[in-house]
């Protein structure tokens, strides 16, 4: 763990205690049943964990980003699927509101997000526009009272559970080289908003990942966030923040796998002694711990860069690239560490009764959403050669 301030230590301890007492013991059942219990969100809201970045005047904790990520890592260590819902609730949606919303929108929505009275979703990707969101085909047409949105979104987290969805839709063609895309707060109870099929995923099974159809959904003018032509830029900013969150989530998954692997290696005996006494197992654990420490350091480096919006050293790597580096390193670390944990468990690692196979399935998703590893390498490479 990186060196923490007293406040960061306190928030980490609170998150760890909650994860160990309220999340981890139920994670296996949630994975099996394909849903987590609503009561856990209510308990998280009571602790302020649904509005960690929201300003205090709107009912949030107003944490800085590094402190938020310290807490989020611990919650993800308890269950990555639940953490994905927390990520949307704490990160991209309130960020867009806080940065580009009107005072009225902030006063209306931020307290409800922070209290858990309103659960949010983020609808950007489409079947033909995943890594290339500028190619989206969902449209928003101006009407007398606001906008009419038509189209379909894919891989939407919280799509069935959310009360409000931040939907990105094309408001025009290409204007002076810029894609005209707007960001809209859409009530999920609005006529024409339909939740399509739920995806059957390899990991994160307790997270709702669905298709969303928007059949001429009417949206009032005050539900447009910011400039109707600059929504894509807002989404990409939110992804920079989101990638740091996914990096912390991946570190949490990896940390859980390492803890289980160490515990099992101490208990499992072969040839008359614990397998932790064998050099091969110690070597695996050493690599796992080192990779986790490096990934966590990159996530925190990206968080500090985000806070200052400045590069932290002479090479002037931009914030977008730092976020990409953090997510790339952390997600691939989660993949490596969970695979090694399965190997340390041996045959038991392949069994559903043991925790590491779930962690391995969950880890794979972190290499895909909010920027695949391939896309992240392109982002980093472009920053080095532009």
Walkthrough of the structure:
The structure is a single chain. This protein has 386 residues and is an alpha+beta fold. It has 3 domains: 6-115, Butyryl-Coa Dehydrogenase, subunit A, domain 1, CATH 1.10.540; 120-230, Butyryl-CoA Dehydrogenase, subunit A, domain 2; 233-385, Butyryl-CoA Dehydrogenase, subunit A, domain 3 (Up-down Bundle), CATH 1.20.140.10. Helices cover 52% and strands 17% of the residues. The chain is built from 11 helices and 10 strands. It has helices spanning 6-33, 38-46, 65-78, 80-90, 92-100, 103-115, 231-267, 279-308, 319-345, 356-366, 373-385, and strands at residues 120-123, 139-142, 146-157, 164-175, 178-187, 193-198, 209-220, 224-225, 269-270, 273-274. The strands form 3 sheets. A 4-stranded mixed sheet has the order 1-4-5-8. Helix 4 packs parallel to helix 5 (92-100) and helix 9 (319-345) runs antiparallel to helix 10 (356-366). It starts with 5 loop residues before the first helix and ends with a helix.
